[in-house]
User: Fold this.
Amino acid sequence: MAKINSEIFRTYDIRGIYPKELNNETAFLLGRAFVKFLNKKKPQVLIGRDNRISSKNLYKFLTKGILISGGSVIDIGLTSTPRFYFSVLKSLADGGIQITASHNSGDYNGFKMVRKRAVPISFESGLKEIKGIIEKENFDERFFQKKEIIRKDFLEDYINFNFKIAGFKNFNNLKKFKIVLDTANSVSGLDMRVLFKKVPCQVFHLFSRLNGNFPNHQPNPLLKENLKYLIKEIKNKKANLGIALDGDGDRVVFVDEKGEVVRGDFITALVAENLLKEKSREKILYEVRSSWIVKETILKNRGVPVLGRAGHSLIKEKMKKENILFAGELSGHYFFREIGFFEAPILVILKILKIITEKEMPFSEIIKPFKVYFQSGELNFEVKNKKERIEKIEKYYKKIARKIVKIDGLTLEFDDWWFNLRPSNTENLLRLNVEAKTKDVLEKRKKEITYLILK
Assistant:
């Protein structure tokens, strides 16, 4: 039986510390198992990678495993994850593997895997099967064929496709904004360089040089401490907008001209409002942690709100099944039907620039109408018996709740507040989000639930 750390198989991808939890042998075995999983004679597998120090070695051994098992490889080199998805679609490859650990620190690495047409492979839809193939060493033996690697570059095609979908024929009407951009020394900087060469804005690009150790700050824009340089530069340059991307470029965070971080669900509401002007009656997906204002905005603009679970694989699956136009996640992932149901940070950036131009007001003023309620932000509690804690909280509140939803964890709604309590898929953590109509109610209920969780 092949030795592999089972803990690296997560809900949506494979991830671990290199080389302690995940190493070159892991990559080799994964390449062999992926060919078996695709169940096709000489499958063509597209491979991309981020710029982590370990990504080159993992690419080398992953490719070796694919080739020795009878597959062929399309190598697109350094790439963001959204460009990787686009490349799988464009190349008509039978599947794809992106070597990345997303927003994790430089000592991590991992693999995001997709089928044909960039359909994501989650634990339940394939990773579990791939894990079984490795453990049983149930590989195909096809050593006789020619080892084939084709190198391609889809960067220009990817950027131009985003412009086409965004409706940009020219930039005559786009204002020449001052933008501060932070790509955290990550591979996302490659896409942004090409994008902003085509957009007539003055861009101050922080940490643009690729460095897989991420020396300036970790590539996770959801943590406020990682945005301090961006916020400082926005104020210094008197910029109109700040933009930060994560380590593999599939999530984007916006900061207004005052240096205030804009919540991801407010961006979802803003983009939904804009899209529904031209395409009313379309479905818009929002996830369980989103503010009440998101659903209200969708309904106000004659859209159909669809509540869903967090997690990119689950969102893409639901969007495809229900033909949903657009979806947004609190964590800065935004998905569009027109671009293949996968994350489209460039398209969101172009949409935001277009909205600011059309509204002719500062970004903070555009976002202001969505700041109706008061939010706690996501609070994490370390507990071992997650299921029991959630059941206890439900029992305490269920008689007075006006609505109970169990799509993703536990969501209870009341007249003037609501909360969502979700278990982490990988850690002994409960994640709590609370929203209320007043600050006093928010503080009271947040304190109350915290006591119940920790009691």
Observations:
- The mean pLDDT is 94.
- The two ends are 44 Å apart (CA to CA).
- Residues 178-259 form a domain with the Alpha-D-Glucose-1,6-Bisphosphate; Chain A, domain 3 fold (CATH 3.40.120.10).
- The chain has four domains: 6-153, 178-259, 264-370, 374-454.
